[in-house]
Amino acid sequence: MQYEPTNIEGVVIITPQLHSDARGYFYESFRSDEFCAHVSSRPFVQENQSLSTKGVVRGLHFQKGDAAQGKLVRVVEGCVRDVVVDLRQDSPTFGRWAAFELSAENNRQIYIPRGLAHGFAVLSQRAVLQYKCDAYYAPEADCGLLWCDEALGIDWGIDPSEAIISEKDQKWPTFADCYKF
What we know:
Layout: E1 2-5, E2 12-15, E3 19-21, E4 24-26, H1 32-38, E5 46-53, E6 57-63, E7 71-77, E8 79-86, E9 97-103, E10 109-112, E11 116-122, E12 126-133, E13 142-144, H2 167-170, H3 175-178
Antiparallel strand pairs: 1-2, 2-10, 3-4, 5-12, 6-11, 6-13, 7-10, 7-12, 8-9, 8-11
């Protein structure tokens, strides 16, 4: 596997080595020993899967306090623009966001450490995402930021007027309502 740091501290793009022939392909999507050596030694305790259709934006989600989650995200069908926002006030990249294209075609995965908000926009007709988490989901710690916060200026890769957003995601506060630079 190839491990590439990004412009957000602790966020890593992981690209597996694809072995393909006339029958199809094979790749290791996760190896604990390599992951621990290159990224994080926290064990994953939960794996989730979501299905969304074109234009859906999910996020920006995070869990606060002791329930914060590190995540390893990959797309098994379709294509998304995956977005992270650094919420760690002691981080040199605090308040910055980054976006990455993840797809079943490029097989890239993204590791998102604890303390970042996460979301994605579906660019294909539909997308299936799987993500491993290093902490269990805790409803009482569920938080988010407004996906279309003008101060953040996130480029979701889709026309915002065509975005399909849950009622819950439309009501999250802005970054400025939660954090001070």
